[in-house]
Amino acid sequence: MDASFDLMVTGVYKDLPGNTEFAEAKYLAPLDRYLEGWSNLNVWDNYNMYLLVQLKPGAGFPETSSAIRKALRHYDPKTNTELFLHPMDRWHLHSSFKMEQRYRTVVLKCCRY
Question: Which of 6, 23, 53, 76 could pair with 44 as two cysteines, CB 3.0-4.6 Å apart?
């Protein structure tokens, strides 16, 4: 992101511990602002960033994960890529994913505040 548009600061956070996933984060921004100016917004097999999801209170991980499982097929009917949620508290100790039946998996990291 550069200075080509105005943004509003909606929160400030203190420096995060060095052992956190976000230790070097300078800012968090909505995806639409981050992607402004990209020419490949309709390319659905480019996985070069994390996507963080905040669930609404009361939303269950299994139900939400199941609901988004085949979401990419709306944009690419031929894809075998499936989406699922992976809770923040399981990122480091429980993060060994295996490819099954040559399907690629995209993990949406999930956090609750």
Answer: 76
